[in-house]
Amino acid sequence: MKLSLAANFDKALIPKLKGFPVEEVFGKLPTDFTGGGRPSYMGGSLSERELARYVALLAENGIAFNYLLNSACMGNREWGRGFQKKLMGLLARLGKMGVKRVTVSTPFLLEAIKARFPEFFVKVGIYAQVDTPRRARFWEDLGADAITLESFSINRNFRRLAAIRAAVRCELQLIANHPCLPNCPMQSYHQNGFAHGSDGSRRLFIDYCFLRCTRTRLEDPSLFVKAAWIRPEDTAAYEALGFGTFKLLERNIPSGELLKRVRAYSERSFQGNLAEIILPYGFKETPGKGIAWAAKHFLRPLQVSPFKIKELHLLARSQGMLFPLGESPIRIDSARIPADFIEGFRRRDCATLECSRCRYCEEIAERAVAVDEDFRRRAMQQFGRIEGSMRDGSLWGVKKACG
What's this model's pTM, rounded to 2 decimal places? Predict the structure, then answer.
């Protein structure tokens, strides 16, 4: 087993990773000209000099750093001379830091990097949506050294996974602990929002998709089971197919939580609340962003009504999104999930099944998933107010249309 771990850039965490199969840590500067897979406000403050020191400490501990150039959209800026000069400069500086791994999601960027910096190990990110043998071969033929498969949709499709593994020789990686909606209908919209929320344009980005899917899970708790995460206990089933590299999310969560995830997957066992190793929010130690964070990213662009920012702030705080939360109101009890849980998907094709007729995940969720009812009620009211203000335009101080 090899693990690719999200970076929170806490140097104190690095020595604690010794003894675990962490091959690389992935991340990027909070803002650069390419954009990436998370909005800038999730990145905190990190300079190139600080990144270089972090990369050097990783290297001292035998861990590589993978710099993310994984934006799904670069706004056609990649065809301009200015972008190309910046790309060459960034890759050269990364090389001097000792970075020799990057992740991309667009084919031209892969080809350009391989032509100009052939020494780089280039991994294809999940936003490339590789979910068939044909797509995997396309990227391998372009020169990809590794491919992250479209885990949202195919982590539990063993027939498809086996076919992809047989089709290519390059390394294949699966995301083990994402909570995303299965076959998420908002995926393309979401990843493009991330791209432009981290490209330095300073455009306002409100994570509508994240708010929507969070509310949807509270409405239907079976989605906590339907999300195609991989239990630590089930990694052997994937290793038997030839998948030995697992990616662990999420960036910029507390170090103790990242270490908990590394330990669980390394030991192939986790007892307790699976939400603790799957969800990207709701931690006791989450660094507070407070009103300064809200002002920087919402008020300073002068695009959101100051009277509505309070609702966004209260919602984020109550959910434990970018703020600490005392106790998690969401529980996925690992002891109540059947030992043969993953075997139930070998004979099912979830993409073609109607969930209301199958009910495999629903029945497990009824036993294993619990959401505090007071929390759910308050959250639904908050989501309702925020979404209502988006629909009628009052979030931006825009008057309703008449007639």
Answer: 0.93
